[in-house]
Design brief:
Distance between the termini of chain B: 39 Å
Number of helices of chain B: 13
Oligomer: heterodimer
Distance between the termini of chain A: 68 Å
Largest sheet of chain B: 2 strands, antiparallel
Number of helices of chain A: 17
Order of helices and strands of chain B: HHHHHHEHHHHEHHH
Strand order of the largest sheet of chain B: 1-2
Largest interface: A-B, 54 and 42 residues
Strand content of chain B: under 5%
Number of strands of chain A: 23
Helix content of chain A: 25-40%
Radius of gyration of chain B: 22 Å
C-alpha cells in the first residue's frame, strides 16, 4: 500500500493558558477526502494553520508521504505541496486575477515577470470553473464575492498541490458553484490528491467526503466512515451531549409584573403597528421574516431609531419616545444587536472593556476615574460565569471565536444589570455548544426575574425557549399568545401574512 | 427539529456587482485626475498672470522643472513605499543629511563622484534602518520614520557642526542649473536623471516580480504572507531603495544651494507625500503610479512657481499648498471608500 499522503501524530498547541490543540492524530490517504468537523473553537483552524506553516506546534510530528514535515513558513508548506483555501478571503483586491492566482509563484526570467506564461497558467486553472466573468486581467476587487472565492481556490490549485486543505470553502458560494467545486474535488481525488474538508454543513460533508474526524476541545474524539454514521451521532460527538439537552428547562412564568409595555408603536417605514407587553420572568419571542420590521421595532423601543407615534411604558410609567439611548440604559433596558461585528461589539477593544462599557460606574471609585483592577475582576467573573473561552480579560474581543464573542455581547447586558433584555438574533452564526450556553444564560436571566424579548429566525429555538410568541409581518406585530397555541405552521402562515390577523 | 444541519445555510443569493460600470468610469476619472489638476493649475496662473507669455516661457518651464527635481526624486521612492502600504516621514531630514555628506565629501578632497555615491548610500542606509525598525521592532512605519526624522536631522547638524557647509565649485554644483552646459542638453542634468529614474522605477513596478509584490504587500499583507512572500525582506528592499533615491535628492539639494545645509528641506516629506497622493497613490496601500506621482510633483512646483511669479507672499503659497494636501487626501478617502 502507498504511503499516507499526510500523517499527523499527537499535535498540540497552546496560546498562553488556552489549549487550542491537545494531541490530535489524523491519517490522510492519497485521493481521500477527509471531513474535519467540530464546533467553532474546537481547534480546526489552528490545525489548518499549523499544516499551512503559519503556526508551529508545541508537540507532535507530521509526515508528508512518509517524510518528516515541519514547515517553517507558508512558502515551505506550498513547496511541499500543501495548499490552504482560507475561510476568509485572502486576496489582493488591487491586483488582477492572474496576479492573485500566481502570487508567490510568479513565472519570471531574471526577476522580470513573464506575463504570457502567467496568463496561460491562470487560464488553465480557471478552465475548471465556467466563470466567463473572471477575466484573467480583471481587478479582483471588482469581482463579486463568489467569483473571488473561485480565484482563491484557483490559487491553491496552481501550485501543484498534493494535499489541499479547504476551510469552509463554500461559505460564500451559490449552489451552482458548490456543485462545480465538488466536481473539482472529485477530480482532484481521482488524481490522487488528498483533501481535508472543513465544513459546518453536514449534508455537504456527506456529499463529498469519505471519512471524518470530529474535533472537540482540541482533541480528536471520533473518526470513522461517513457512510455508516448518523448525523445525530456526529452532532452528539461535536457537542459532547445530545440534542435534547439543548434547551434548558425552567419554570414557566405567568402573570408577572409588566416591566415594558408598548402601545400602538409606529416607526415608519418599517414598523407600521406594534403593541405588546413584556412581563417579569418571561421570555417573549418575536418571529417573522427577515425584513418584516422586527429589528426596527426593537431599535425604536430602545430609542435608536425615532418612532413617529405610540406609547412606551416602563414599569407603568410613560417614557419619552425620542428618549436618547442613554436614558434607556439608565431605565434598565439592554439591547443586543443582530450585527455582532458591526455594532454589537467594539472588536479591537478588550473583553473587559466590552463587558463593562455600558456600566463603567461599577468599576469606578467616582469622579470619572476607572479602577482597572476592578474592571478586570468584573470581567473575569463574567468570563467564568458565562463559560467564555478567553486567555485574558485584556485580550481584544475580536480574537475570540464567534460564539465566545456573542457570550461577551450578552454578558454586557448582564453586567449592566438590565431588567429588560431586548435580544435580536442572540444565537445567529454561532456553534451548537455556544448556543446551548446562551440558552442557559437566557433561561437563568428569566428565572432571576428579568424580562426577555427574543427575536429569532430559527423556529426551533423560539419553541424551545419562549413562554409567549408574537409574529411580525410587513411591519405589523400580531398579538402575543402562549407558545402552546402556536405550531411552526401557524407561525409561518402569520409571518407570510396569510393566517392570523 | 434540527437534524441535518448545524446552522441554517445562508440563502444562496450571490451578491451582484452593482457598481461595476460606475467603477470603470471612476477609475478613468481618477487616472485622469492628476493631469486635469496640472492643467487647471497652469490655466489659473496663466489667466491671473499679467504676463502669460513669461509664465509659459521656455525659460520659466526650465526653472520649474529644475525646482521639481528634489520633490520628484523623493516622490519616486515614496511611491514604492506608499504603494506597499507604508509611509516615510524622514525624507526631508534624509535630504538635509545627505546634502551635508556630499558637501563634506567634496571639501575633504574626495572625487566628486565618490562624494555623490557616499551621499546616495547614506540615504540607502537611513532607509534600511527605517525598514529594520519597522520589521524588527515592529514599530509602525509612521512612528519609526518620525523617530528617524529627528535622528537624521540631528546627525546632519552634528556632522555639519550646526553650520552650513560651503563647498568648492565642481560639476556637482551644475546638476540643477537653469542653463546647462553643454547647451544641447536643454534641460539640467538633474532633470534628465530624474526622468530616467522615473522610467526605470515605473518599469520595475510594472514588469518585475518585485514590483508586483510591492503592490500585493500594500493591497493585502496577510494574503501576501500566506502566499509565501517574505514580507519583511520585501520591506527592507523597498525602504532601502527608496532611501537611495532620497540620498540622490539630497545631492540635488546641495547642488541647488551650492552648500550643505543641515536645516534645509524641513517639511519636504509632506510635499513628497502630497505629490504621491495627488498622483493617485492611496495611503491604504495597493494603489499609486510613478507617472501620477510625477504629475503630482509638477503640480506642486507649478503652484509654488506661480505664486512666486504673482509676487504673492510666502504664506499664501503655504496656505494653498496646505489646502491642496487636504483636498488630495480627501480624494484618497473617497477612492478608498470605493475599493473597500
Amino acid at each position: 500500500m502507498a504511503k499516507p499522503a499526510l500523517e499527523i501524530i499527537g499535535i498540540a498547541k497552546r496560546f498562553g493558558p488556552t489549549v487550542a490543540l491537545d494531541g490530535v492524530d489524523l491519517v490522510l490517504e492519497p485521493g481521500e477526502v477527509h471531513a474535519l468537523i467540530g464546533e467553532n473553537g474546537a481547534g480546526k483552524s489552528t490545525l489548518m494553520n499549523i499544516l499551512a506553516g503559519k503556526l508551529r506546534p508545541d508537540r507532535g510530528e507530521m509526515r508528508v508521504l512518509g517524510e518528516p514535515y515541519a514547515p517553517a513558513s507558508p512558502l515551505e508548506a506550498r513547496r511541499r505541496g500543501l495548499a490552504l483555501i482560507h475561510q476568509e478571503l485572502s486576496l489582493c483586491p488591487h491586483l488582477t486575477v492572474t496576479e492573485n492566482i500566481l502570487l508567490g509563484v510568479e513565472p519570471s526570467r531574471w526577476g522580470w515577470l513573464d506575463r504570457r506564461a502567467a496568463r496561460r497558467r491562470a487560464l488553465a486553472v480557471l478552465e475548471n470553473f465556467s466563470h466567463p466573468e473572471i477575466h484573467p486581467d480583471r481587478r479582483v476587487g471588482d469581482l463579486p464575492i463568489a467569483a473571488q472565492q473561485v480565484v482563491e481556490i484557483c490559487r491553491a490549485l496552481v501550485a501543484d498541490a498534493r494535499i489541499v486543505l479547504m476551510d469552509e470553502p463554500t461559505s460564500s458560494l451559490g449552489r451552482d458553484d458548490v456543485e462545480r467545486l465538488f466536481a473539482l474535488v472529485r477530480r482532484l481525488s481521482a488524481e490522487g490528491i488528498a483533501v481535508i474538508y472543513i465544513s459546518h454543513f453536514l449534508e455537504e460533508v456527506r456529499e463529498i467526503a469519505d471519512r471524518y474526524t470530529v474535533l472537540r476541545d482540541g482533541r480528536g474524539v471520533d473518526t470513522g466512515t461517513l457512510a455508516g454514521t448518523t448525523n445525530e451521532h456526529l452532532i452528539a460527538q461535536m457537542v459532547g451531549r445530545t440534542m435534547e439537552d439543548l434547551y434548558p428547562s425552567r419554570r414557566r412564568a405567568v402573570g408577572g409584573e409588566v416591566l415594558l409595555e408598548v402601545r400602538d408603536l409606529v416607526a415608519p417605514p418599517a414598523v407600521r403597528h406594534a403593541s405588546f407587553e413584556l412581563r417579569r420572568g418571561e421570555v417573549l419571542g418575536i418571529a417573522g421574516l427577515v425584513g418584516s420590521g422586527r429589528t426596527e421595532m426593537v431599535r425604536a423601543v430602545f430609542g435608536l431609531d425615532p418612532a413617529q407615534s405610540g406609547t412606551i411604558l416602563l414599569r407603568g410609567r410613560a417614557v419619552a419616545l425620542r428618549g436618547p439611548t442613554a436614558d434607556r440604559l439608565r431605565q434598565g433596558v439592554g439591547y443586543l444587536s443582530e450585527d455582532r461585528k458591526g455594532e454589537g461589539l467594539a472588536l479591537p477593544l478588550s473583553v473587559a472593556d466590552n463587558l463593562t462599557l455600558t456600566r463603567l460606574s461599577a468599576c469606578s471609585p467616582g469622579l470619572g476615574w476607572l479602577d482597572l483592577r476592578r474592571q478586570r475582576a468584573a470581567a473575569q467573573r463574567w468570563i467564568e460565569a458565562l463559560g467564555v473561552k478567553a486567555r485574558d480579560p485584556m485580550q481584544p474581543v475580536g480574537t475570540l471565536s464567534g460564539g465566545n464573542q456573542q457570550k461577551i455581547a450578552i454578558g454586557r447586558l448582564l453586567h449592566q444589570e438590565a431588567q429588560i433584555l431586548l435580544l435580536d438574533e442572540p444565537t445567529r452564526g454561532i456553534d451548537v455548544g455556544s448556543k446551548a450556553q446562551i440558552y442557559e444564560v437566557i433561561a437563568r436571566a428569566a428565572e432571576e426575574g428579568k424580562a426577555v424579548l427574543m427575536i429569532s429566525s430559527y423556529l426551533p429555538e423560539l419553541f424551545g425557549m419562549c413562554d409567549r410568541l408574537a409574529v411580525m409581518s410587513r411591519g405589523r406585530l400580531s398579538p402575543a399568545r402562549p407558545i402552546e397555541e402556536w405550531t411552526p405552521e401557524t407561525v409561518m402562515a402569520a409571518a407570510v401574512g396569510t393566517g392570523v390577523d | 427539529m434540527e437534524t441535518t444541519t448545524i446552522e441554517a445555510r445562508p440563502a444562496s443569493a450571490v451578491p451582484v456587482p452593482a457598481r461595476e460600470r460606475a467603477s470603470a468610469l471612476q477609475t478613468w476619472l481618477s487616472r485622469l485626475g492628476p493631469f486635469l489638476g496640472l492643467a487647471l493649475v497652469i490655466l489659473v496662473f496663466t489667466v491671473l498672470s499679467d504676463d502669460p507669455g513669461r509664465y509659459l516661457s521656455p525659460f520659466n518651464l526650465r526653472i520649474v522643472l529644475s525646482q521639481t527635481v528634489i520633490v520628484a526624486l523623493g516622490a519616486i521612492g515614496m511611491t514604492m513605499i506608499i504603494v506597499s502600504g507604508g509611509i516615510d516621514l524622514s525624507v526631508g531630514a534624509t535630504i538635509a543629511l545627505t546634502s551635508v555628506v556630499t558637501a563634506l565629501g567634496i571639501n575633504a578632497g574626495w572625487p566628486p563622484v565618490l562624494a555623490v555615491v557616499a551621499a546616495v548610500l547614506v540615504g540607502g542606509l537611513v532607509g534600511l534602518t527605517n525598514a529594520l525598525l519597522i520589521t524588527g521592532l515592529r514599530v509602525v512605519p509612521f512612528i519609526a520614520t518620525l523617530g528617524m526624522l529627528g535622528i537624521a536631522r540631528g546627525i546632519a547638524k552634528w556632522l555639519a557642526d550646526e553650520q552650513t557647509v560651503p563647498v568648492a565649485s565642481t560639476w556637482v554644483n551644475e546638476l540643477v542649473v537653469t542653463f546647462p552646459r553643454p547647451e544641447w542638453l536643454v534641460l539640467a542634468p538633474g532633470v534628465w536623471i530624474t526622468l530616467a529614474l522615473a522610467v526605470l522605477v515605473a518599469i520595475i513596478l510594472r514588469n518585475t516580480v518585485f514590483g508586483r509584490r510591492v503592490f500585493a504587500l500594500g493591497s493585502n499583507e496577510a494574503a501576501a504572507s500566506a502566499c509565501g512572500i517574505h514580507t519583511n525582506r520585501l520591506k527592507l528592499w523597498i525602504y532601502s531603495s527608496a532611501g537611495l533615491l532620497f540620498g540622490l535628492a539630497g545631492v540635488m539639494q546641495m547642488s541647488r544651494l551650492r552648500l550643505g545645509d543641515p536645516t534645509v528641506a524641513i517639511g519636504t516629506e509632506l510635499d513628497v507625500i502630497a505629490a504621491v497622493v495627488i498622483g493617485g497613490g492611496s495611503l491604504n496601500g495597493g494603489e499609486g503610479s510613478i507617472l501620477g506621482s510625477m504629475i503630482g510633483a509638477l503640480i506642486m512646483a507649478f503652484l509654488r512657481n506661480g505664486c512666486q511669479q504673482m509676487g504673492w507672499p510666502n504664506y499664501v503659497q503655504e496656505i494653498i499648498i496646505g489646502m491642496i494636501i487636504v483636498l488630495a487626501v480627501a480624494l484618497d478617502g473617497l477612492r478608498a471608500a470605493r475599493t473597500r
